[in-house]
Amino acid sequence: MKAVILAGGRGTRLAPYTTVFPKPLVPISDRPIIDIILQQLAQYGITDVTISLGHLGHLIQAYYAAGSVYGLRLSYVSESQPLGTAGSLTLVPGLDSTFLVMNGDILSTLDYHALICHHRTVGAGLTIATHLKEVRIDLGVLETGAEDLVIGYHEKPVKHFPVSMGIYIYEPRILKLISPGEYLDFPDLVTRAINACEKVVAYKNDAVWLDIGRREDYEDAQRVFEERRREFIDF
User: Fold this and answer.
1) Closest C-alpha to 72, from 102, 99, 50
2) Domain ranges, residue 178
3) Is residue 150 assigned to a domain?
4) Residue-wise pLDDT tens digits, 43-55
5) I need a labelling partner for 213 at 20 to 30 A (CA). Which of 8, 28, 36, 234 fits?
6) Rounded to whole angstroms, how far apart are CA atoms 28 and 6?
7) What is the largest CA-CA distance in the chain?
8) Is residue 149 part of a domain?
């Protein structure tokens, strides 16, 4: 199976680290994030990976100058102008069978075999790996009714929401919903797919998931990766 890693974002929330590095090259412990991702993909039998480049993308190409790593064949596409997290897929050649797409700034212990099998078993056009995110509200939340009558009071409630992990399985026909050269982000593609009566499925799982989008997330990821390193690699 082929995979596409989206590595074109500017990573402004992770500054100053991303001032000199593209976010996928920011280190977790002693290795860049993207290097850990590539090793994981290889361990799950992925053979070809295309990296979609943008901000400081030449540094990623320089890092993997040999053109292969962990037995993977690496290729690159570059955006001459931003195309979004879905639009950039139109630049990638050869996506003519089921393929995986993921962001280049996340780490997870997700079982990719199980994800792909679920996608195929349910006959999905697009599958989104999901994580159950806990959101704590550190305030008293009022429940109101007619004429602002208070009908309930919840002190510091905890809510749970299924959120996208930034890891997806596509069938090639989904790409027909994107016009070449069009700017399109993934949430808008999901809406188009639903409106086109495509089967869009959430894959629920309990894998560890680290979204390295903000400085505090990055610092937390360093700790979790060191504590649970063998769950991410060499499993």
Assistant:
1) 50
2) 2-129+163-232
3) no
4) 999 999 999 998 7
5) 234
6) 18
7) 68
8) no
Residues 174/198, Cβ–Cβ less than 8 Å: yes
| Alpha-carbon gap, residue 12 to 15, rounded angstroms | 5
First to last CA, the chain: 20
Which residues neighbour 66 within 8 Å (Cβ) at sequence distance 6 or greater? none
pLDDT in tens, 136-182: 999 999 999 999 999 999 999 999 999 999 999 999 999 999 999 99
CA atoms within 13 A on the CB side of 201: 20
Question: Is residue 199 situated within a structural domain?
Answer: yes
Q: Is the preceding omega at residue 157 within 30 degrees of 0, hence cis?
A: no
CB distance 126 to 198 below 8 Å: yes
Q: Are strands 140-144 and 150-155 parallel, antiparallel or unpaired?
A: antiparallel
CATH code, domain carrying 200? 3.90.550.10
Q: Is residue 110 part of a domain?
A: yes
- The tally of domains found in the chain comes to 1
Confidence of residue 76 (pLDDT cuts 50, 70, 90): very high
Tell me what pLDDT residue 19 has: 61
> 103 in helix, strand or coil?
strand
